[in-house]
Amino acid sequence: MSWTEITILVDKAKTGDREAFGELVVRFQGSVYAMALARVRDPIEAQELAQEVFVHAMRKLPQLRDARCFAGWLRRMCARMAINRMTRKGPIFGTEPEMLDGFEGDFRTPDELLVLAEEKAGLHAGLRKLKDLDRSTLEAFYLRGRSLKQMAREFETPVGTIKRRLHVARARLKDVLEGREPGTGAESMAIQKELKDKKRTKQLALAV
Predict the structure, then answer these.
(1) Could you tell me if residue 116 is inside a domain?
(2) Are residues 188 and 91 part of one domain?
(3) Partner of 175 for a Cys bridge, out of 49, 87, 132, 185, CB 3.0 to 4.6 A?
(4) Are 80 and 136 part of one and the same domain?
(5) Domain tally for the chain?
(6) Phi and psi (nearest 5°) for 176?
(7) Is 120 contained in some domain?
(8) Residue 36 maps to which CATH number?
């Protein structure tokens, strides 16, 4: 999808076109999730944050003056909402995301650029510690913005298997970001047990 097409979708979405906004969500969900994950360091919280960002963006989109600034506006919204989310869990008080909704462009302070660079470096370092299949699955979906159907074609694998791989890979990445070996955390162990149980049930069904 070209930036011209994205601008057209933004203009349509600003008028209340839900289908156009849905296309924008598909295009940007991977990058928003990746940024959210780099900040909150928890796959489940990152998913919740990404959903909140898009809900907030849909409500505030008419305030965006220049459709060409949508990507930067969305990134800043995600950053501020992540800060706000973490603020509720600690003593530091942050800026409400609504305060920056009206600002377009891609300006960041040196401190913000440094924090963003550190977060990206930490995320990519975590990805490098994963096995090739886990890393390529996460990168395709969250960094390159591939849909499940596109990944199914590229990996020559059913959509259901892609979903399962993402589920497992997210848990392993969480382990790495929290300083554990991939697959050794409680969530990873639970997923592995669930998959083994499903496999055993399927084997028993085939044996009957």
Answers:
(1) no
(2) no
(3) 185
(4) no
(5) 2
(6) -65, -45
(7) no
(8) 1.10.1740.10
Q: Which residue matches tokens 């699955």?
A: 137
Which residue carries 């392993």 as its tokens?
172
Question: Over 70: is that where the pLDDT of 173 sits?
Answer: yes
Tracing tokens 């909402």 back to the chain, one arrives at 81
pLDDT tens track for 106-122: 444 444 544 555 556 66
Predicted model pTM: 0.47
Supply the DSSP symbol for 21. H
Mean pLDDT, the chain, integer: 77
The total of other beta-carbon atoms located within 10 Å of residue 58's CB is 16
Residue 119 lies in a domain: no
The whole-number pLDDT of residue 203 equals 62
Q: Residue 14 contacts by C-beta under 8 Å, 6 or more apart in sequence?
A: 61, 62, 64, 67
Residues whose CB is less than 8 angstroms from the CB of residue 112 and which lie 6 or more positions away in sequence, other chains included: 79
Written as one letter, the residue type at 29 is: Q
Containing domain of residue 27, as a range?
A: 1-107
Which stretches of 68-207 are DSSP H helices?
Answer: 70-87, 110-128, 132-138, 148-155, 159-177, 186-207
